[in-house]
Specification:
The chain is mostly beta strands and 188 residues long. It has a single domain, classed as Jelly Rolls. The chain has 1 helix and 12 strands. Strands 1, 2, 5, 7, 8, 9, 11 and 12 form an 8-stranded antiparallel sheet that branches. Strands 3, 4, 6 and 10 form a 4-stranded antiparallel sheet that branches. A hairpin with an 8-residue loop joins strand 7 and strand 8. The longest helix is centred in the first third of the chain and has 13 residues.
Length: 188
């Protein structure tokens, strides 16, 4: 790590190191299937047995990407909404969710999605609801944290069922800027 900065001033080296530290990714991989509560109330998406499924964030802007596979959903509407939650104070959240309500891996489902502001899809289905029992979704967004706290992605099932967040679902969160910063890099 230090080798590549040899010959640079101390200040340039420190600036590059700080940039690398601030751009660090946080990653959570769902190791086992996780059964959700048989409820339409919002509940955490990720949990590996002893985790709260939340990530502590300081002030700044963060970009997140989620790959989500949920099975055993209600056949009335195999669908759910995505919620940005936690103890952090946030100045806003923007993003989109695309996916399919389908019968399972390899099955073709109608692809649809939602764009959202401030709290995730919050009560609006991630995809166009159907009667299939599996949901595949790719959710991406940015959240601005104005006071430190936890970031916890949540899901609210459209119809109650003991649905399962499948092993292999994951989230990556990356800090992209300080709070209030709108440009990073040599934009002109």
């Amino acid at each position: 790590m230090f080798q590549r900065w040899r010959g640079q001033s101390w200040r340039a080296w420190a600036d590059k190191l700080l940039d690398e530290l601030l751009q660090r990714s946080h990653f959570f991989y769902q190791e086992e299937d996780r059964t959700l509560d048989n409820s339409t109330a919002a509940q955490r998406i990720f949990d590996n047995g002893n985790d709260s499924g939340s990530l502590y964030l300081t002030e700044g802007k963060y970009r997140y990407s989620i790959w989500l596979h949920v099975s055993d959903m209600s056949a009335v509407s195999g669908n759910a909404s995505f919620i940005v939650d936690g103890t952090m104070t946030f100045g806003g959240s923007r993003g989109c969710a695309f996916g399919a309500d389908t019968t399972g891996l390899g099955a073709v489902g109608a692809i649809s999605g939602q764009f959202f502001w401030d709290t995730g899809t919050g009560g609006v289905n991630v995809v166009l609801g159907g009667t299939d029992t599996e949901l595949f979704a790719w959710i991406q967004g940015i959240v601005e944290v104005t006071a430190p706290g936890t970031f916890q992605p949540q899901i609210a099932l459209t119809d109650a069922a003991a649905a399962t967040v499948r092993q292999g679902s994951f989230i990556e969160v990356r800090r992209v800027a300080d709070q209030g910063v709108t440009v990073v890099g040599p934009w002109q």
